[in-house]
Amino acid sequence: MKTASMIFRQLFEPVSSTYTYLLGCEESGEAVLVDPVMPAWQRDLEAVSALGLKLVMTIDTHIHADHITSASMLRREAGSRIATPALDGLPCTDVAMHDAVPLQVGGLRIDPMHTPGHTDNHFALLAGDRVFTGDALLIDGCGRTDFQSGDSRALYHSVRGRLFGLPDDTLVYPAHDYNGRRVSSIAQERARNPRLGGERSIEEFVDLMANLDLPYPKFIDYAVPGNRACGECPQDLPPSLREYCPEMAESPQG
């Protein structure tokens, strides 16, 4: 497949501390959003428009537990196709992602990498000199493995066996950061990630993850079913959680 120069923007959603990534093809004017978030859908469309691009696809790296994707809203508003892991079998999907089967957006090639562990069907996305690691590999950390078919052993092999096998200077862009960090590299994470880097053994990692003692995610019971519908806001959302998923605005067409 052909490759082209990439327009790139990193966008941050503060409610769930989620990074959304805008990738655009200079030649075709087509764009894709990786892990778009419901409260920020208008901002994302404005960013696409400001760059003179047309949104043709959204990609969710996995079924999220901490926010609701805006994939369906963006499809409604911009006509973009929804790409999700084929393994999830979501009926709302337009493009089913398979491991090592490239996605093409204009002249941009995006290579999906199945990286289970945080969830069983989690994917990372390799695009040129950067990899979008979702929740599998974070900066100085990794995603949880204690819900949604999480598996510490699988995550260890996904990160150390697949992601750490990428070239040293590959830029690492995670789906979240809670400390204001924006980017890392494979070399840095391989050397010093406190959970998975250095000489960390699989048994040490499994023990570490089993003893994190993290609280139950406060939005998971709404986010997972909403994301299995590619971004459906629940009707019974408590007032304390409404900032995660505001009411969908009416969109008159005439």
Q: How is this structure best described in words?
A:
InterPro entries: Metallo-B-lactamas, Mito_Persulfide_Diox, POD-like_MBL-fold, RibonucZ/Hydroxyglut_hydro. Pfam families: Lactamase_B (PF00753). One of its GO terms (molecular function) is hydrolase activity. The chain has 254 residues and is α/β, with parallel strands linked by helices. It has 6 helices and 14 strands. The strands form 3 sheets. The chain has a 6-stranded mixed sheet, with helices on one face. Strand 11 (137-138) and strand 12 form a beta hairpin. Helix 3 crosses helix 5 (202-210).
Molecular shape: globular
Give the tally of structural domains.
1
Mean pLDDT: 94
Please summarize the sheet with the most strands.
6 strands, mixed
Order the strands across the largest sheet as they lie in space. 1-2-3-4-5-6
The chain-level structural class is alpha/beta
Cα radius of gyration in angstroms: 18 Å
GO molecular function: hydrolase activity
EC number: 3.-.-.-
Protein name: Metallo-hydrolase
Keywords: Hydrolase, Metal-binding
